[in-house]
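Bench notes, afternoon.
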Amino acid sequence: MKRILNGMISTMNSVKPPRITALQDLHDAEDHGPFSILIGTILSARTKDESTTRIVKDLFKVYKNAKQLANAKVKDVEKIIKSIGFYHVKAKRIIDVAKIIDSQYKGKVPDNLEKLVELPGVGRKTANCVLVYAYEKPAIPVDIHVHRISNRLGLVQTKNPEETEFELMKKIPKKFWLNINDTFVMYGQNICKPISPMCNVCKIKNSCNYYKTKKNAS
């Protein structure tokens, strides 16, 4: 796995150093801690990273913590996040989540998966993102990029992200888990794209089942 991760990073740097992901950006900022990671992950669904980063920062300029967001009006939150997809649903959802964090957890985001997935709209991917980016706890958040690349490489043969998560947990040593999501997401956004992946520049293509099949078919 170390060779694969290093190969991805080397490939990206040789083409063009990629912009860091929205969640890594929020992690590095450390302005509002785990709560901003949780809210940022919820808002990031079907939204470009650049938009997510900007919107989360704008949101937390107005609402500094769970208590303030819990008491916000849906229409006021919608005005701030309206440039992202599904903003009506997301505005209500993050307020509902904030209310639970404020009332049940005294403003502190849980640091275990079981409690996180009990929050409204929080699935395994979002919960694992909080564990990785907020608490630096080993987990493997699987989004469309991680799912696609894992299958292309032949690390797994799975039909959905949840299956991919469990298979990767079995096969990849825990010491690499913290780096999987960030590296795979950047690679999926910049190199191993859904359509027309840049196999010609990929430095791990000789270990990739997708490339071998493509090469044999040509």
